[in-house]
């Protein structure tokens, strides 16, 4: 039986729907403004798209297959004219899903310019009912789980559409980074200001590399992220923290903060085989 569980309680549904509406508008605006996270892939990337994508993993261990030709790839919550067109140019059959029409329009525009095929779908990452089960070989999921209140629903949907043995490559905002202040306290210390587990969006914040202006963001604990991926039906194979710290960074800067609070968590997970294992047999002689 297909499981498309969304919040059953009225407050949960209202919280989800409100967040989706706010974040769709916010990303439409960011795309229109040409914000850094809404810029299409640069021309040079299409000279060698597979090389530009790299291994996507930790040092010395590539997370992506060496060849992407013919693989079904889902770029989830990944509009903006970057991920989808590059994976398609590298030979994959690509679907791009995003909540923001303006971000998807960037994908549509780049696909036409580069003459690559993309399936473009406007949808929320926690409801992928339009896709068949076990369709995708690889799911690429850039930073975005912070924009939904219930991350478990996202992981359930990703698990449903990923084939057994398929790869799920995701990146998330670190919970401690979201909990901490954007500016250092007196003495240069970084302090936690927001609780985990309150199921309410963080207070609005000014634009920065850490928070997208106008969006609603939610803190998800490591148990929600790592445990949630496992409970959905994946086995985690590797975890990384992209290094944004810089020696000698100006106190209070993004790079200085990153040396205390790594902003992102990157995860490689493999879909477990959902077929039932044969029951053990006892041989009597």
Overview of this structure, please?
The protein has a single domain (10-53, 64-271), classed as Vaccinia Virus protein VP39 (Rossmann fold), CATH 3.40.50. The radius of gyration is 20 Å and the shape is globular. The chain contains eight helices and seven strands. The chain is α/β, with parallel strands linked by helices. It is 29% helix and 17% strand.
Comma- or semicolon-separated keywords:
single chain, 285 residues, alpha/beta, Rossmann fold, seven-stranded mixed beta sheet, 8 helices, 29% helix, globular
Short description:
The chain has helices spanning 10-33, 49-53, 83-89, 101-114, 151-161, 175-179, 222-232, 254-260; strands at residues 72-76, 93-98, 118-122, 136-141, 162-173, 234-240, 264-271. The chain is α/β, with parallel strands linked by helices. The mean pLDDT is 92.
Q: What is the fold's blueprint, element by element?
A:
Layout: H1 10-33, H2 49-53, E1 72-76, H3 83-89, E2 93-98, H4 101-114, E3 118-122, E4 136-141, H5 151-161, E5 162-173, H6 175-179, H7 222-232, E6 234-240, H8 254-260, E7 264-271
Parallel strand pairs: 1-2, 1-4, 2-3, 4-5
Antiparallel strand pairs: 5-7, 6-7
CATH topology heading? Rossmann fold
Instruction: Count helical runs.
Output: 8
- Summarize the helix and strand pattern as letters: HHEHEHEEHEHHEHE
Global shape: globular
């Amino acid at each position: 039986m297909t499981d498309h569980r969304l919040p059953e309680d009225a407050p949960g549904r209202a919280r989800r729907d409100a967040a989706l509406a706010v974040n769709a508008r916010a990303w439409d605006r960011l795309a229109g403004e040409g914000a850094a996270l809404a810029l299409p892939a640069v021309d040079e990337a299409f000279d060698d798209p597979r090389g530009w994508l790299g291994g996507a993993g930790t040092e010395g261990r590539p997370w992506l297959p060496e060849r992407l030709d013919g693989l079904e790839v889902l770029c989830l919550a990944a509009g903006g004219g970057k991920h989808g067109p590059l994976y398609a140019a590298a030979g994959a059959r690509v679907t791009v899903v995003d909540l923001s029409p303006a971000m998807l329009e960037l994908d549509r525009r780049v696909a036409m310019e580069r003459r690559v095929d993309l399936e473009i779908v406007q949808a929320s990452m926690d409801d992928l009912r339009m896709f068949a089960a076990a369709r995708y070989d690889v799911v690429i999921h850039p930073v975005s789980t912070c924009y939904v209140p219930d991350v478990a629903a996202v992981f359930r949907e990703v698990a449903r559409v990923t084939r057994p043995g398929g790869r799920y490559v995701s990146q998330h905002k670190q919970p401690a980074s979201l909990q901490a202040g954007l500016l250092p306290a007196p003495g240069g210390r970084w302090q936690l200001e927001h609780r985990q587990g309150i199921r309410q969006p963080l207070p609005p914040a000014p634009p920065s590399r850490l928070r997208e202006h106008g969006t609603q963001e939610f803190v998800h604990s490591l148990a929600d992220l790592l445990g949630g991926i496992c409970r959905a039906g994946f086995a985690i194979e590797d975890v990384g923290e992209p290094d944004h710290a810089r020696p000698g960074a100006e106190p209070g800067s993004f790079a200085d903060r990153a040396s205390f609070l790594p902003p992102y968590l990157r995860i490689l997970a493999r879909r477990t085989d959902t077929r039932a294992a044969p029951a053990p047999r006892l041989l009597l002689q």
